[in-house]
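Hi team,

Filling in the usual template for the complex we talked about on Friday. All components are listed, including any nucleic acid strands or ligand strings, so the model treats them as one assembly.

SUBMITTER: L.P.
PURPOSE: interface mapping
COMPONENTS: two
RESIDUES: 598
SEQUENCES:
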Amino acid sequence: MSIIVLGTVALDSVKTPFGRRKELLGGSAAHFSMAARLFTKVNLIAIVGSDFPRQHVTFLRDKGLNLNSLIVGDGKTFRWEGQYQGDLNSALTLNTQLGVLSVFKPEVSSEQREIENIFLANVDPDIQEHLLTKMRSPKLVGLDSMNYWINTKRKELIKLLKRIDIYVANDQEARSLSGENNLIKAAKQLCSLGPKMVLIKKGEHGVLFYNKKFIFSLPAYPVEKVIDPTGAGDTFAGGFMGFLAGTRQVNSLAIKKALAYGTVAASFNVEDFGLLRTSRLTRSDLERRLAKFKNCFSF
Amino acid sequence: MSIIVLGTVALDSVKTPFGRRKELLGGSAAHFSMAARLFTKVNLIAIVGSDFPRQHVTFLRDKGLNLNSLIVGDGKTFRWEGQYQGDLNSALTLNTQLGVLSVFKPEVSSEQREIENIFLANVDPDIQEHLLTKMRSPKLVGLDSMNYWINTKRKELIKLLKRIDIYVANDQEARSLSGENNLIKAAKQLCSLGPKMVLIKKGEHGVLFYNKKFIFSLPAYPVEKVIDPTGAGDTFAGGFMGFLAGTRQVNSLAIKKALAYGTVAASFNVEDFGLLRTSRLTRSDLERRLAKFKNCFSF
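RESULT (copied from the run log):
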């Protein structure tokens, strides 16, 4: 079954200990799609500006994405500039230019409206809500956000949480929104706000999954050379949601497998700048690394 | 086979969000022993002052520890005072009184000298070296240290690493001693200094194990109510080394099991102040939680 991803398509400029890159194709929806496309048909809902390079559109289309609802707005493409230092666990944002993102009203075609798997990647909660309301019969809805919205649109975000199935957050966000320092307590508290499942991404420390039936925790795949972690969380979500969208039954085994696929997909993402590695990724790359990954924690 | 643990026996005063306790029995060797005793006969090598409460000696003896080399020195027992806030991941040291620890010269009986499994818990590297030199035929030697010694006795510590099998560090220490931010690189670099194996403890994020043959990584056991994390790392080491000392062959499966036992032992330690929980711990408590723990990451 196919999936809708709402999010950003951006031009990212990054500086890491391994170099500097300017205006790479990026954004939450783009990173998500590179992993999700390996499991299911991905419908990308985003906006770019009139300055968005044509070759990027071709590139995304060649990856098999449905771009019918990729709007070209009148203005500039969303740009993000950031820097990573030390352990590369957190980005320092140097500059953000919203451009057309500030007037984004997502649209979906009548066919897309029927899609049951939806991922609301990090954008303004009002935009996320706007899209969700358009959908006819949401079955599995995931949502990611960020500290900026937790601080500035807390009410809107909390209202939206009642309508989703899976809340995806990093550890800082989970602590900030729940008011709990302990991550298990934080996950529990977030679950009580509406979502059936909470997934806390911890970067190099792996992932924690919570629902009322079980807690599941995986380490990260050990990557020695982290070149650029931009989009790793979105790639994780793409592998996770993509796998679930492609599976018939969302039971505990499917969730565990989905978390492992997400982890492995994210490990490829950090091995090169932007989408360079994940855009070349194949399902068999994923399977091979998944087998290795299992050996890292199974006995 | 029995094990020697060299380390501290201390009087710990702690303040955590769950309360305040004064002069609890603690110290690296004491915490280590509470876990290791469930697998093997533990010989505790440490010093206390003439003010050390008699009932603590009785308590330790009742736990089955061999106290033949627990020296009572002329002076005060080592005292540590610390505080935990927020996520309880790191202690803020408020006060340290070395007392008799500053004149500690460890002794071992002629029987103890034959013991092949040795854990050098966190004390001055010169003291660790002093004990190691006394041992007749060390077979499996583990060593823990801390940032203070990494900064002030780096040379001595690095020299000592050539003589040990397993270096146990937390993530900060591993980064600090190796000069590498990436933990896989850090583990590799530390291995090149001598130890066959490197074990990096990451608190609530679990553990990373590295040797030339494999990388193994486990999440922490999910504990919702962390009361007092003091000694969790030593308890981890006690479960890990204790299991290995009790096993015949230190192969990859034994190492993986040992890491899981260490993780589970540490999870009990944080559930109450000081040694309160681990001193009541039984092997069947460990086994029950180990089975639950496996469900947290196996699929």
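MY TAKE: The domain at 3-297 of chain B is CATH 3.40.1190.20 (UDP-N-acetylmuramoyl-L-alanine:D-glutamate ligase). The longest helix of chain B spans residues 252-269.

Thanks, L.
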